[in-house]
Amino acid sequence: YFLLRRHYDEYYLQALKVRRLIQNDFLEAFKSVDYLLTPVTLTDAPSFADFTAQDNRTQTAKQDHCTQPVNLAGLPAVTVPICLSGYNRTTAGSEEGAKRRSLPLSVQLIGPYGSDKKLLRIARWIEERVDFPTLVLCD
User: Global pTM?
Assistant: First the structure.
């Protein structure tokens, strides 16, 4: 529908203009910083019941809010888990700790065009220094 010839100017060209504006904003930011570190989401993951209570378009807009601009701009980015929501090592394994959702929270590292390899090296450096809990599988 959006790519039909009769809608080309109204939708497709407008989308390209918006994309260019987003790209320009990132290019301007990279004039004063080397990389950007942003949240991936504004909250931890919703429960299935909360997610299905709203339509997919609404949930996508809410959950992908922080990652959409970088994807539209076509920039390299990587998500790195940092901690678990509500996780506290002193309450881990306790009844209080069991009540917490303990879902992964992550940051998004964004780099300028062509910085993919360095971006992955920085992400690895962050992973090595963050005390992110590991999953232990039991038999």
Answer: 0.76
